[in-house]
Specification:
By secondary structure, this protein is mainly β. The protein is 0% helix and 51% strand. A hairpin with a 4-residue loop joins strand 2 and strand 3. The model has no long low-confidence stretch (mean pLDDT 81).
Length: 177
Amino acid sequence: MAININGINISSTGTSLSVANGATTWLGVSSGGVVTRPQTPYMRAVLSGQGSFYRALTVTFGSVISNVGSCWNNSTGIWTCPVAGYYLVTMGGLASGSGQGVTGYGYFYIFKNGSIAHFSHWNNATSWDYCSLSAVLSCAANDTINFRIISGPADNSGSGGWYGGGDHGQFGIALVT
């Protein structure tokens, strides 16, 4: 049975439920109760092609793999939340050590509306180390999220960096609920 309300189809097979607009399914519930939302806003990007040492007050990417909902603006390095909800924000990559010709320390940040929401620090003496940071942020519609890699304290006085070759730096944002 299907119901059409102003072009939105709500249908059920008796064991599953679907909400769609034409061929685009917005929400599905399987007979086992699994909810799918294929149009959920998310982005995934990598530092590919950024060079050996990448430092930025606001990160943009060499390759944006996915940008469902077009919430990510790679020119500005800003994600704009389309709706209120909880957003999973992740970043990770290879941080440089002093054996790479730099001091080997730095900070990476997740910013919300221009203020620090979460941060972490690396300080490795001689090699490359994988560092990561993730957070779930409660956001209102039109809140903004961005990533920063700072090679020292907030004044950017250090000289650590992340490796920007290949796909070593991974970043993502997704609406989770």
